[in-house]
Amino acid sequence: MDALIIEARESLRTVITKTDKQQIICDGVLNDGGYGENLSPLELMAAAVGSCILTTMGIIAKRNNFNICGTKMEVSKTNLPPPGAMIKSLLIKIFFKDQLADHLFKKLKRAAEACPAKNSLHPAIEIYIEYHFSNSQDIVLERL
Q1: Crossing angle between the packed helical segments 41-63 and 102-113, to the nearest 10 degrees
Q2: Is residue 117 classed exposed, middle or buried when 0-12, 13-18 and 19+ CB atoms within 10 A define those classes?
Q3: How buried is 128 (Cβ within 10 angstroms: 0-12 exposed, 13-18 middle, 19+ buried)?
């Protein structure tokens, strides 16, 4: 992996650069005096876990000749109170655009559990995943 270059800017804003063409602006939250216009560091962490889960599921789906394109995810985080304000829990809702055969759903659940970004988090962070299926009222809630 290329080194990430992170530059401090005004009002708790940083610019993260992977290459000359790829940049992400990250803001401190308003409560801390940041702009709050872009993702905060903890939001980036939550987004990284969600993106990793979908990518890992995509690898398994591809191996099984199945496409999860159009699958969407909503990630919500809860923080511990200040001082510290670390992530307490993540609620991840996955909305599959298609119905899944039971054997494929089991493989995708295992992929979510194996996500390297999720497994890099401190074990005290509670992670819950809700699986939602198209044309169905069925919701499966799992704690990872």
Answers
A1: 140
A2: middle
A3: middle
Q: Model pTM?
A: 0.88
Per-position pLDDT tens, the chain of length 144:
778 999 999 889 999 998 877 899 999 988 888 899 999 999 999 999 999 999 999 999 999 999 999 999 999 999 998 877 899 999 999 999 888 888 999 999 999 999 999 999 999 999 999 999 876 656 676 676
* One-letter identity of residue 59: I
